Amino acid sequence: MKPPPFSYHDPATLSQAVELLATLDNAKPLAGGQSLMPMLNMRFVLPDHVVDLNGIAELSGVRITESRVEIGAMTRQREVEFSAEIAQACPILIEALHHVGHRQTRNRGTIGGSICHLDPAAELPTLACALDAVIDVIGPNGARQIAFADFPVGYMTPSIELNEIVTRVSFPLWPREAGHSFQEFARRHGDFAIVSAAAMLLVDPAGRISRATLALGGVAATPLRMHEVEAALIGQMATPETFRAAAELCRKVEAVGDVYVSASYRQHLAVVMSKRALAQSFSRCGAMQKH
User: What are 139-161's pLDDT values in tens digits?
Assistant: First the structure.
């Protein structure tokens, strides 16, 4: 199929793009196009105007501070995947990107585009959920920040206005000695996750878990932060039994079913993927200090 007719706009600056989205009726921003173009071709989206963000240099780039990784919304996933600085500061981000589509997808796909598309089975929204990412947006009323916990409104629906643009995604950094893991079960490598789990752990010298995070993707209409699991882990000894008991709490999630996978099977996978993610995170605790 071919996309519906629309007017194409190619702004060179962020201010021009904001003005276009504020003044044009039924306009849609174009980032990497890995989701928008198929949706246009299948007539799932019918804009009158497409505003191309690819010529706006100020929307790309990576900056690492002592406390966070800041990534411009138009930064290609492939650029992040091969960033040695991000591999040191936030290795779980690299691990998650290895599951995103295929090389061709990551060559064009952007960090902000994936976050904004907000597919619950996509890897980057799940990771943003686990890491308490912050989304920077700008529109005709100025700039604002949105905590990822407040970003999803519903299925594939972010809490940004139609005339706002995501400019940056920030991932808070954990201590170097923290362990990490991103686990995914899909029909084929490169497919969207049936269930994924993003986990990080911090363990004290006595072997007790002092900090934990766990998020699930593909299970529900939005990525799920498993606060009950995290609370069950804090203060416990990092043992297989602890991880098994905590992961079992994921069986209670209100999972969705579809033509491929039942809700009960997703609940089962949520337990399995979480247990694997927690165990691997623990196996990596302190690994950064050894290099």
Answer: 999 999 999 999 999 999 999 99
